[in-house]
Structure formats: C-alpha cells, structure tokens
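Lecture 7 notes: from sequence to structure.
We start with the chain below.
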Amino acid sequence: MAPNVISQRVRRLHFRFATFILFKLFLLFAIEVSRNGQFQWRVTALGHFYNGINEGQEKQASDAYCWVIRALFGYNASAHLAEETHEASVVVAKGMWMSTLSAWLLFIIPFVTIIFFCIEDFDGIINASYANNWAEYLIQMVGPKGAVAILGILWVDPMCATASCFVSAQRVTFAISRDGVLPFSKYLRQLNTN
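Predicted structure tokens for the same chain:
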C-alpha cells in the first residue's frame, strides 16, 4: 500500500521493479532448465493428468474456470482507472482487453508451458510433504537455494497485485464519495495537490 500513498514516482518504480522481476524469473527458469537438459517430451508434459480429489467432471470444469479467472489480473483495475480519461468508452474497452491479453502473454503462455515441460518427477510432486506442491516442483528444477530465491521473488508479485487493487479501490471510493454516498464523503473526495 505504501507505493500508492507515497507518490506516483514510487509507484512507477515499484511496478517497473515488478516487471523486471517477472522477466528475471522467466529467464531464470529458462537458463536453469536448458543447462540441466530437463525438458520433457510433449507426450509426457501434456499427456499426464492427475485428479487427486476424485470429484469428476464438475471439479475439472471449476478448475478450468478458475484458471481463466487467474489470467484476468488487472482487468478490473484498468477499467476503473480508464473511466476518468478522455473518451472513456473507448479507453475502458481497450484497457480491459489489453490487460487480459498482456496477462496471457506474460504469464499463462510462457510460465505454464515451462512448468508442463520441466516436471521431472510427477509422483514426487503429488506425494510431497509440503503444504504447496509448487515448492517441490521448484526444488526439482533449481534446487533448494534456487527454490527459496524464486519463492522470495514470487512474494513481490502479490504485492504488486495488491497495489493494483488499492489503486482501483481508491478510484472507486473517490467516485462514490464524490456523489456523496459514503459516510465522511466530504473528506474522502478531497484530492491532494499531486
């Protein structure tokens, strides 16, 4: 939340740092995997499925729905931020589809592809003693120290998503308080000089 409150410059640096981390993480995976020669064949990567909770087609359909939702980061925030621009009816639509497209291009396509093609021991991941199987996958790929580094890097990503949510919430709070709907609207609709 601090980058949203301090200044626009700090927020800009925060998001640039997050973008740098995203590309660094992608390169870290690609370099480590290519060095160790751990890529799997297409049949192994895309032909092995596991349904550990045995809830049938309904569960698989809900999981597929959740994967689609996961790819829509920034969708809501870009729409809210674009509402106050010139020609908002055009800018909002562009912001919505561009945020979804960029999420797919920057996350779903490269990372999910790398994950599928780099699994070494599928049963080891499923039977791992960790609360999250992602840690076992990372240990297989980059070793314990690399796994800790990547999990640390991934800790920054939710902070950036939270910052986007705060920006969106601030914009919505201002718009509603401007109309006098919220309690203390007089104070919430005030803007600073920045």
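Points to note: Residues 2-188 form one domain. Residues 50 and 123 are 10 Å apart (CA to CA).
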